[in-house]
Write a structure and sequence with these properties.
Blueprint lengths: L16 H23 L12 H5 L1 H7 L5
The structure holds zinc ion (ZN).
């Protein structure tokens, strides 16, 4: 018994690694920058003076399990 009309007709798109690699690297760098600001932007490793960045990402620190206070 065959059911006609229910077979998928769309085929998945293949993306070559050469085209996606620069975007993957950019995304990785942006994620590493975000992790820095969430996890290490305070005290001796801070770039910006004051606690503004720390307070801005404070909930993210606790969500990701970074020690805080
Ligand atoms: Zn905290």
């Amino acid at each position: 018994m065959t059911i006609t009309g229910l077979t998928p007709s769309a085929r998945p798109i293949t993306i070559p690694v050469r085209e996606i690699l620069p975007w993957a690297i950019l995304g990785g760098l942006l994620l590493m920058l975000a992790i820095y600001f969430v996890g290490a932007e305070q005290g001796a490793t801070s770039i910006f003076r004051g606690m503004y960045v720390h307070e801005f990402v404070h909930d993210g620190r606790h969500l990701l399990g970074f020690p805080c206070h």
